[in-house]
Amino acid sequence: MGRAPKVQQKIIGLIGGMSWESSAAYYRIINETVRARLGGVRSARCLMWSFDFGEIEALQHAGRWDEATAALIGAARRLERGGADFVVICTNTMHRMADDVQAAIGLPLLHIADPTAERIRAAGHRRVGLLGTAFTMEQDFYKGRLAVRHGLDVLVPEAEDRAEVHRVIYEELVQGRVMPASRDAYRSVIARLVERGAEAVILGCTEIMLLVRPEDSPVPLFDTTALHAEAAVDRALAPG
């Protein structure tokens, strides 16, 4: 019998540093998944441009989205020049400018919402809760894609809960702080979404997976970090 054909991996271009805690999780999940699929000491071919998140966070909260968009486009172009075959933005919130980034480069951009929605639909869910930054929960760039492209009915927490979810992300998780009291708060937010009819909950900020576990929710959780990273491996290992 002949030897199995060697898999020629595509090069994954990662735009990270928003925050580096979740970018480290992307790097780990991508490499663990490649090793699990290819065996031995195999690992991913990837490039990463990592931001100083302090600079990006300041732009976000000042509403200076044009400058943030320009920064992401610059990062994507660096990855393109470096030889990446496609681009992954390692954060949910900064998908606010995903269409602008895609228009500015000659590479495909793997949108974080798409593999998440596909997995939710495959599991038979239609009405889902969404946790994330205030930008992700309140603006339409993310909810709208889930609804229009994938037919999902998206619920977000009430205003007070949204404020607490956002606070924990920026004051704790992106600083590497995982607090038991905040886990309890998120459990309560999830429970209220379920009371309103959520059949599943999207962890729509890439740091939330540091805090919330499956046992913290009475309904299935869909972790965008893991789903996006695994989808990047799918694309990297796909033939052609």
Automatic annotation (TrEMBL):
GO molecular function, one term: amino-acid racemase activity
Any one Pfam family match given in the protein's UniProt record, by short name: Asp_Glu_race
Top-rank taxon, per record: Bacteria
Keyword set includes Isomerase: yes
InterPro entries: Asp/Glu/hydantoin_racemase (IPR015942), Asp/Glu_race (IPR001920), Asp_race (IPR004380)
Keyword Transmembrane helix: no
Record key words, sorted: Isomerase
Family recorded in the similarity comment: Belongs to the aspartate/glutamate racemases family.
Protein name per the record: Aspartate racemase
Organism from which the protein derives: Methylobacterium aquaticum
